[in-house]
Amino acid sequence: MGKRYYCDYCDKTMVASPSIVRTHNKGVVHQKLVSDHYQKYKDPKTILREESNKKPCVRFARGECQFGGICRFSHYTQEQINALKQYVAAQESTKLNADQPSFEDLYQKLQTEKTTKSQTNGGTAMYDYNGVTHVFPWVYNPVFDSFGDSLPPSLKRLQIDDFLNTTFTDWG
């Protein structure tokens, strides 16, 4: 039977001959479907830039335009173009007013929060009898302290006494 080519845009299969595939890709129906597909992913600023330069499509207004997304004329009404202009202007003003911090600023903020959290939260540091501080890589949830000894061992807060008389066994 030979190899087959499947066009995702047109939902059609055909013989995988280069000349047939090339002819299909140059076809009006294929180009229209490709344009309609990628129109979904365009941002409003790009759509406004493309559509504001075009004249209105008379055939589309009558419901007779067969070209769809590949039409040389605009299929947007003047009200839709004005709404797009307002939307793009609102987006631009929020971008200017946002004062987005840089990646380095966010990283430094995260690192300082991380270090101050581990230093200020009493649950992450343990002091032994020699005065040595041990900092754990986790944070205790203070809600569990209210349950007292009724918690399972995996949820209890570690104490220095838990490590004093520990026996280590060899495994395997």
TrEMBL record:
InterPro entries: Matrin/U1-like-C_Znf_C2H2 (IPR003604), U1-CZ_Znf_C2H2 (IPR013085), Znf_C2H2_sf (IPR036236), Znf_CCCH (IPR000571)
UniProt zinc finger (C3H1-type) residues: 51-78
A Pfam match: zf-U1
C3H1-type domain boundaries: 51-78
GO cellular component, one term: U12-type spliceosomal complex
GO molecular function: nucleic acid binding; zinc ion binding
Keywords, sorted A to Z: Metal-binding, Zinc, Zinc-finger
UniProt-recorded name of the protein: C3H1-type domain-containing protein
Organism: Parnassius mnemosyne
